[in-house]
Write a structure and sequence with these properties.
This protein is mainly β and about 70 residues long. The chain is built from no helices and 4 strands. The chain has strands spanning about 20, 35-40, 45-50, 55-60. It has a 4-stranded antiparallel β-sheet, with no helix packed on it.
């Protein structure tokens, strides 16, 4: 007697990569703001390469990038 065919599990959907560079709200230059998150130091950093505007904030282990 033969075995039943087992169905393969559905393929996993690949998550889209989120942007890490954005337009600066102060100098309006495109794709010049870079966002980084350092979970070891619990610091998030946002820096504009053109006007050098900078913001730092605390992050937690629950902090994730969003759209």
């Amino acid at each position: 007697m033969g075995k039943r065919k087992s169905s393969k599990p559905p393929p996993k959907k690949a998550q889209a990569k989120l942007d890490v560079s954005f337009n600066c709200p102060f100098c309006n230059s495109s794709k010049s703001v870079i966002c980084t998150m350092d979970h070891e130091k619990e610091m998030g950093n946002v820096v504009c390469n053109q006007c050098h505007a900078e913001f730092q904030g605390r992050i937690t282990h629950l902090t994730e990038p969003i759209e």
